[in-house]
Write a structure and sequence with these properties.
3-stranded antiparallel sheet; alpha+beta; 298 residues; globular; 8 helices; single chain
Length: 298
Amino acid sequence: MSFPVPTHDAIQAALNLPDDPVHIATGGLKAVYRFDWPNGGPEAIKAVYIPPGRTDEEMLQREQLIARAKREIEALRACSHPAIVKLGHIQPELFTIGTHDYLIYGEEFLPGESLVAQLDTAKPAMTFADLKLIFETLLVLIDELAQLGFLHRDIKPDNIIDTGDSDRRYVVLDMGIAYKMEGTQLTQGGAPGTIRYMAPEMLMPDYKDHMDFRCDLYSAGLTVYVLASRQHPYAPRPEHQYATMWRIMNVQPEKLTTLRPDLPPEICRMIDRCIRKKPALRYSRIAQILNELKGIKQ
């Protein structure tokens, strides 16, 4: 769905900023800008488009988008793990720009490259050390979110950046479809998320009965699998999403050790287990995975 993206000067006027921010990205119903505070640092400004509520259906969509944005902000505020982006100076507020409404707020601006860039076959394959660190980072983050009562629901290479900072190497940037396990009114229709990285149970009509941390565990395992092999087991090429969904539900992925025989077989088996189609066949405790992962050496 396309939406009216606010101009940089409109954002400046709405927030009463001393200078214009710079538009850097647009995705979903969200526009992202960079603003450099005088005598401060850079900040990412997010403007979430809130559609008008002329009909009952539009009003429901409007309420759902506002609730989703508020859940993202609540999750970012609650989670202290360094692997998640932090809120910035601009507090969440609803603005009307022209005739359109936007929920606008700030996040820290982190330099770095999305892990999607690692899928370029012209680059060297990711090392065991890097894959292990990414996997560990995602596992600890999923565990902390689960303890706070949240699911991420959109872990994928696109949402992770390599900052190059050894103290905070990999950071997840987007909590836009976070789900709070208690007190969230579930929306109608299918589960939100990126089909290619969704757990099989999330594609089922009764997905609402199966949502727990193992959904995020599947997405994290698949993310590491794709980064390691540089191929997607269910969407090897662009195709209709229903074909991808069928593959997710019915096709068994090739064993990672076959695709990356240079990696320790133990970590390949762990990742293969995380992407089992049935949640009960995955790990039941994050602590168990972290303990096993810690003992794996190249």
